[in-house]
Design goal:
The chain has 17 helices and 27 strands. The N and C termini lie far apart (59 Å). By secondary structure, it is α/β, with parallel strands linked by helices. A hairpin with a 2-residue loop joins strand 25 and strand 26. It has a six-stranded mixed sheet, with helices on both faces. A five-stranded parallel sheet has the order 1-4-5-7-10, with helices on both faces. Helix content is 26%, strand content 21%. Bound molecules: beta-D-glucopyranose (BGC). Beta-D-glucopyranose binds next to loops. Beta-D-glucopyranose (BGC) binds next to loops.
Amino acid sequence: MKKTLNDLTIEEKLRLICGKDCWNTCDLDGKLPSVRVTDASMGVRMPVDPEQWGGDRPSVSYPSLQMLCNTWNTGITREYAECVADDCLDYGADILLGPGVNIKRNPLCGRNFEYFSEDPYLAGVMAREYVNGLQSEGAGACVKHFCCNNEETNRLQQSSEVDERTLREIYYKPFEIACEAKPVSLMSSYNRINGVYGSEYRKGYDILRNEYGFDGLIMSDWDAVRNRTKAAKAGCDLEMPYHPEHYEALVADYRAGRITEAEIDLCAQRVLDLVDRCKKLQTGKKRKHALEERIGFTQKVAEEGIVLLKNDGVLPLKKGQSLSMCGWFARPCAYARKRPELTCGGGSGKVERLTPMFDMLEILQREHGGAVTYEPAFSENGVDSAFMIPGNAIMNAAVSEVNLVFAGTGAGIECEGGDRRSMSLESDAQVRTILETAAVNRNTVVILFAGAPIDMSEWIDEVAAVVYVGFPGERGGEALANVLTGKVNPSGKLSETFPLSYEDTPSAQCYRDCNVTRYEEGLNVGYRYYDTFGEPVLFPFGHGLSYSEFEYKNISLKKTGAGLEVGFEIENTSDVSGKEIAQVYVRAMSSYVYRPYKELKGFAKTFVKAGEKERVTVRLDRRAFEYWSVADDGWKIEDGVYEIIVAASCSDERLSAKIQIKDGVITVL
Ligand code: BGC
């Protein structure tokens, strides 16, 4: 039977809100069940020893959340989370410490691969779907990190200084949308928000609870609490992991009257509720997907998350074409012992994969059929002296029909606890190999394993195609081969802008300021900036090519009780069936306050058979037209004209129509 506060002494309540060890909540010497939490972001990362941070059990390695988001497929996101919930059940984890929904404010953030998007609506919708999938299959979610944890440099100290409107519209927004799925918990951030530590951020916690309907528990990030009493008084219910000194200080503060029993009760009650909710979530739950199915599913996610960035027609490969391949990233299997982390990011989200690393040489030899050569040419950082850089790669490229260069970053560069030094490949050897092989083979395809934007200015014009893989999980090699050979038609699109250079990013001037980071760009994060100011980019938000051609036609708007229904047709004018991601943006045309040029408010991914067309409907609710009014201290819908734009990417607008809003009433124009 569920324990109540009346069953507990004050000493027990104090213990309850401090955690038991690194990964369990306190069980009060067997009086209560513990809740076991585990890391997240590419699957389940569970250390064997609950007292240790590391020493992980191998488990299914999924594509990273950044790659999942590039699918723009809410169904896949839900299934992904259901599979991860099955992993949690297998490993006895009650709560997954994810998803991470922080906004990708700057392309250098070392944890961008763990987050969804630069756009709060897209990140929020994916997070909501994720939480729904996870919790429906028996694992609790812990949406993280609240809030404004957008850089890793000095993350334990740094203060993110952000104005209220930007907080509401950009940085809180994914949490607000995720809360609709009723996550059992949320994790606060390490950094300070306008001077206040994430673990003491009462103002934000009150918004979560009183405005977003969050009724779960707030836990600290690991070792983020400075003062347990202050954190508890602010509403941080649980400190993780257990810290004896913090617990003792809390007891002393209670005895000295610096924190009341009523304040402790609020936190303790939420821990009791958490235990109860987690156990209820699991009641009667069986694994929905067998282990083999989950591993197979990672391939499906990767196939939909790979983004074809550029293609002058060289892809898909033609059967029997001779191929030259180079770069360590092609054969992570061969270098796994030396560099186990080529195709994933590092830190708490890194998963010890179950199956051996893939080998593109072997897969392409099998799947493609033609002659395939391979040359290491460079390691991931290009400093390995064992190789002639680029060695035989140039000779091989010169005599092959298509040349594939496998490049990227990996966990050595993209990792929790630090930011990337630059947006480039950070390896002269990689860049030299791309340029020198492209100079002898016009059909050079660059294949990128990375979790964030790459500066391609030195080489983009020299190559025929670029395939952005991301960090693709267990079956990434098979998924990539299917996309290269055309067995799978690519259908991923970017969930973040690829700028031309780092200097172009709106936050470049105010990032990594060490102690205080002023978010001077305000609302102009990602495409909101480039689009509003007409700044050119390398690849826009929402961009991704297909082997099909799609045309958009016949937009119609229909008023519904709660908002607006946007209808349109997508016609596949090619002879290849494929999926298209249509994006719906809203543009406030006659606003009295600053609005970014347009903002994403809906999207749909639709399969269209070759030569056929499909009618698509996207629903916009009233929030699609709101902005946060600082003057009124609330959400407001202005009277005026709004343009509804249907686009294939942020810079590829296809259809548009207008509405007028007066006193909250919509009229289709
Ligand atoms: C990370 C969290 C993670 C926790 C537990 C922290 O360093 O910021 O995202 O869940 O460690 O590993």
